[in-house]
Structure formats: C-alpha cells, structure tokens
Amino acid sequence: MTVKQLSVFVENKPGRLSAVTEALAAADINIRAVSIADTKDFGIMRIIVNDTDKAIAALKENGFIASAANVIAVIADDKPGSMASIMKILYNANISVEYMYAAFLNRDKGSACLILRVDNNENAIEALKDADCKLISEQELSEI
Amino acid sequence: MTQRYWNEKIETMELAEMRKLQSERLVHQVKHMWDNVPYYRKKMEEKGVSPDDIKGLDDLHKLPFLSKADLRDSYPYGMLAMPLSECVRIQSTSGTTGKRVVSFYTQHDIDLWEDCVARAITAAGGTKEDVVQVAYGYGLFTGGAGLHGGSHKVGCLTLPMSSGNTERQIQFMMDLKATILCCTPSYAAYIGETLQEMGYKPEDIPLKAGIFGAEPWTQAMREQIESTLGIKAYDIYGLTETSGPGVAFECCEQSGMHINEDHFIAEIIDPDTGEVLPEGEKGELVFTSITKEAFPLIRYRTRDICVLSRKKCSCGRTLVKMTKPMGRSDDMLIIKGVNVFPSQIEEVLIKDFKAAPNYQIVVDRVGTTDTFEIKVELSDDMFSDTIKDISTLEKKIGADIQQILGIRAKITLVEPKSIPRSEGKAVRVIDKRKLV
User: Fold this and answer.
1) Which end of chain A is more exposed for a tag (fewer CB within 10 A), N or C?
2) Each residue's pLDDT tens digit, B311-346
3) d(CA B411, CA B215)
4) Using the beta-carbon criterion (under 8 Å), do B380 and A65 form an inter-chain contact?
5) pLDDT at position B266, please?
6) Which position has the higher pLDDT, A51 or B147?
C-alpha cells in the first residue's frame, strides 16, 4: 500500500520552480503534496500528483530529470503526539526514515496526511498496519 | 645596475656564431637520434630524410615534428637515447598515466639544465650572496628540482621549501632573510597577500627578486606581486619535455624571455600547416634540444602560441626572446599550475556515470587564484530522489578528478541540456581568466 511520488532535479537558479510547475500545469496535473530538499547548488522537488506517469512524461518533454518512487502516505490525527507515535512505531520496527513531508490531503477534519520515504517499505507498512495506522492507497489518493 | 651574465660568451654571442654552434650541435643530435631512437628514425625514414641531409640549421625544416602524442605512444622508454644505466633521474608532468610525459636525464643533462637555470637566477640579479627560497613543488614536477639545482649552481643558500604551508614559508623567509623567491606566480601573489594581512610592509620583506613560472600570468599580476612583496618579478619558461624551467628566462628589461639557444633551437610554425613562420610572426613554438643526451627532442611542438624577437635587448644578451605564451594550439588548460586536458575530465565522467555526460569546465581567476568548476549534466540513470545519493556522486567525481589531476575542482550537477551548445556541439571550456 504505497503511493507514487515524483522527484524532479531542479538547479538552484531563478525560474526553475516556475518552469517545473508550468510544465505540470500545461499537462493538467494537480499537485497533491510537495516538498523541496535543497543544497547549495541544486534541489530535489518531490511531488505527489493525480497522474504520475503523465506528469513524468510532461516533465521529460520539457527537459527535466524526473523519476518515480514508492512512498507511504499515512493518516495522522491532527493532535499533539500523533506524529511522535508514528515515528515511534517505525523506530521500534527498525525502519529508517529518509525524509518526510505533509500532503495537502484533508480527507476529513481532524486528520493530516504524512508522506514517508523509508528504507524498507514492506516492513514499514506492516509495522504501521499492526499499529492500526491508516494508510492511503494510490486508488484512494486519486479519489480524494 | 651592473650587467651580469652567468655565461657571458654564450649569452652575448653574435648571431652568426650562435647559428654555427647550433648547426654543429644539430647535426650531431640528429645522428644521435637516428642511431639510438628507432621511433624517431622511423619518422625520419617515413619523411625520406637521413642524417646526411642535415648539414646545419637551414635543413632543420626537413625534419619531422614530435608531439605530445608521440611521447605518449613511445612511453616510457621509446624516446630514450641513452642506456638506462647512464640515466640518473626522471622528472614527469602532472596528468593521467595516459597523458604523462616522463623525461630522462643523464648527469650531463642535469648539469646543463642547472646551468640554464643559473643563467635565469643571475639575470634576476642573483649571486652566491643570495638566499633562494624555492617554493615550487618538489618531486616529479620540474619546478622544484630545476630552481633548486640552478640555485646550487650559482652558489646561493638554497631553502628547499617546496610549495604549501605558507606560514612556514613566511617564517623562513623572514628569519633566514630570503632574497629571491621561486614559485608559481599565483603562489607568490598568495604569499604577498598573506604577508600584507600579517601587517608586513614591502620594505620589511627581505626579498629583492622573484622567479615565477609554470603557469600563465599577466602584467597586472606582475605589478601586484612586485608592489606587495617589494621585488622585481621575473618570468621563466620551460617544459618537462625539454628539461624543465630554464629553457627561457627574463632579464632586467622584463619584456620577454631569452631562449638558451645554445641548448634549444626555437622555431615558430603555423600550427595548421606546420610551415615555419618568419621572425615576428605569431605561431606555435617548436623546440629542438641540441645538447640533451638521454631524452633529446627534435622539433617538439609545444602547443604554446607566441612570438620570437631578435630586437636588441638593453641587457646586452643576444639570445632570441620569446613573448609569454599567448594561448595554446590545443585544448590544454593550465589551472593552478597544472596541465589539464578536457579529455582527462571526460574519462573520469565516463567512469563515474557509465556514459558520456555533457559537461563544461569553467575556469576563472578570483584575485590571483584560479577557480576550477566542472558542470555536469545529470542523467536519468544517475538521478535519485535523495540528496544523499546525488551528493555522494558529486563527491565521487570530485575525488576522482583530484586523484587524476592533483587539483580540486568544484563539481556542479546541472539539469539536462542546460549546458549551452553551439552548432549542436557542447562548449566544453569556458576560460574567463584574462591572461593575455
């Protein structure tokens, strides 16, 4: 139960984010979650969209380097301590989190959605499910 | 200032007499090559020339050229003209094994080389009373060994510092009252800046002269070095293939370098046709070493572009003068004193990317220090969604480049097709330094 995430290589210079988002807009892609990791010279823009394949094609056509990866989308209660408990579950299962960010997916009031990139999807999913965490599937994602 | 020469007879020799000396030595050298270097003999045979055709200087143009590619093809012993048992030393250029040039020396060759450098030190005002600080790198590089040997020859107190550790350089310079500094011009400028930051004024510094070479430098840089260190800065020229520094040197006139013509015959050719150009025309510098025993080169193409002049020099030397190299007829760059070929960088990238990426070398000079950046277009295969993986790739390329070239480059990964192409061909090198 993973969702597809799109990663794009973006140089650190004016106009590049505009170019990425323009290319996605022109292909009628809706952005559901976004995060940027940056270094001095470049950044990696990670995006969850409604149609990953179409988005990758659109970006490549515009000369960008883009790839897809499977990440976990987990629902967290919008209250103190819920993120801590998810981290604890993963820690206890010996899962390493490479990075994470929040998505613009409010399925219902009182909950938030976290996107997690971990070193072992299978084990992480199992651990989260065992702890009764709610995960979002690719199918559900496109319906939200 | 009294004119002083290390070898007055040679340095002020009349042209006709010098040509006679060169002719005799050339005839002998061609025979030496023919007898002992099958590689060159074959080249001569292919061109239909034999030693009998070479009666003097006027026949020089009949002989085939040698280039770096020949030295590479014949690496390591193919160009050796003496039994190894007669050789006492090697020196080598920087670069990959593929591009490396190894030069051999007999004791006689070393003596002559040191003699050439002694002329340069004398022309810079050096005598046995001087303290010479050699801050060129020691080792395979000819800079340290060449100036060290020349300094000994003159009888100067020699400080064999090698390069780096600027704090120690300055301490020795001040404590032992160094009067002549020998290093790359960029390092001289750096030492000058450091002394200035430490609060030293030019008059506090014991130096009176500097002999700087192994990389291109401008008149502006000369003025800066001269004013911060309170010295006269002299240029010196040479290449490992022809022994090392001391092939040509500057005198008090500081308007070009006198070539040691009793050891090296200089020609200027059209780099495209190979045709010899008349004096005063700009072209590629070609050297024939007429006294070297172990590793003599005939008509070796330096790829340096310059002009020769026999205009009378106020120093009294009659030796022909060459301008500072104005550029190259190949794609070699000299960055931080190190010879860099774009192909060396390409080899590293092909290895690390497992494909040939588009890349661009950007060289600039900030203050007096070269900056060296390699931009590489990232490919789909090498892309990852984690910073960690991409940073690891950058570091790997950086480490491999440093291992090959011996200098550090800033590696910048860029988006595909972001490196400008002219007529479909990527622009491989952008050299923003203003060196001429």
Assistant:
1) C
2) 999 999 999 999 998 888 888 888 888 888 887 888
3) 23
4) yes
5) 98
6) B147
Which of A44, A63, A65 is facing B387, going by the closest CB pair? A44
Enumerate the residues of chain A whose CB falls inside 8 A of the CB of residue B383.
7, 9, 65-67
Q: CATH top-level class for A3-68?
A: alpha beta
pTM for the whole structure: 0.74
**Over the stretch A33-42, which tens digit does the pLDDT of each residue have?**
999 998 888 9
Q: Which of B38, B133, B60, B99 minimizes the C-alpha distance to B287? A: B60
B416 touches chain A (CB under 8 A): yes
Give which of B373, B379, B385 to mutate to test A binding, by max A Cβ within 10 Å: B385
| Locus of tokens 């070796």 | B300
Question: Where are chain A's structural domains?
Answer: 3-68, 70-143
User: 3-class SS at B276?
Assistant: strand
pLDDT in tens, B342-380: 878 888 888 887 766 788 999 998 888 889 999 999 988
Q: Does B334-431 carry CATH code 3.30.300.30?
A: yes
Asked if pLDDT for residue A136 goes beyond 80, the answer is yes
Cβ of A39 within 8 Å of Cβ of B387? The answer is: yes
ipTM of the complex: 0.80
CATH topology of domain B8-329: Rossmann fold (3.40.50)
- Cβ-based contacts of A41 with chain B (< 8 Å): 412-413
CATH 3.30.300.30 domain extents, chain B: 334-431
Does B389 contact chain A (CB < 8 Å)? no
Helices (H) and strands (E) in chain B, counts: 11, 23
Minimal CA separation from B331 to chain A, in Å: 28
CATH for A70-143?
A: 3.30.2130.10
CB B312 within 8 A of CB B290: no
d(CA A74, CA A137): 9
pLDDT at residue B97, rounded to an integer: 46
| Cα dihedral B323/B324/B328/B332 (nearest 10) | 160
